[in-house]
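Retry 2 of 3 after timeout on previous attempt. Resubmitting structure tokens to design endpoint.
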């Protein structure tokens, strides 16, 4: 149990540092904005309580808000995906349920499951975040394009990180 808390804490610190020190300085234009810190919420263990996921998501967004000076927009978007996560996991759950101790990554759940799960979560985050940021519908299609391109960019980043850091030994 304590070992898992330490791993999750280290993952949190590394992803926040990656976001604020490296990714924040990558400029791919105004339409593609990467938010790889969402991976922290995506990789919370299945058995994390709903209230715990909400609190962790809010805190994660709040930390990012402090670095980006975005007045709670990341906290709101992260809280929404923390809330949505339970329902998406329920929607995608296998017939026999999730095994205890697993984290929802490509290696443990398979690529199709992870693509569906992470794409939905990332899309919900970006949709809420960018429309909250613009706060008007006069630029609806421009913002929608920004949501779609940023979702694709963030998803690709998250998927590559899965293969770099979450590979287990398949020769057992």
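Retry 2 succeeded. Sequence:
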């Amino acid at each position: 149990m304590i070992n898992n808390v330490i791993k999750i804490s280290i993952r949190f610190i590394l992803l926040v540092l990656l976001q604020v020190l490296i990714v924040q300085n990558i400029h791919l234009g105004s339409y593609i904005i990467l938010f790889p810190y969402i991976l922290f919420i995506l990789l919370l263990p299945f058995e994390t309580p709903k209230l715990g996921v909400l609190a962790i998501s809010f805190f994660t967004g709040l930390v990012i808000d402090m670095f980006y000076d975005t007045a709670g927009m990341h906290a709101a978007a992260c809280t929404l995906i923390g809330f949505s996560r339970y329902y998406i996991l329920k929607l995608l759950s296998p017939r026999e349920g999730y095994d205890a101790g697993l984290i929802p990554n490509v290696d443990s759940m398979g690529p199709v499951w992870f693509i569906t799960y992470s794409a939905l979560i990332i899309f919900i985050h970006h949709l809420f975040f960018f429309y909250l940021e613009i706060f008007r519908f006069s630029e609806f299609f421009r913002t929608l394009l920004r949501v779609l391109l940023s979702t694709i960019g963030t998803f690709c980043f998250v998927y590559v990180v899965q293969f770099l850091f979450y590979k287990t030994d398949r020769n057992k």
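Attempt log closed. The chain has a mean pLDDT of 88.
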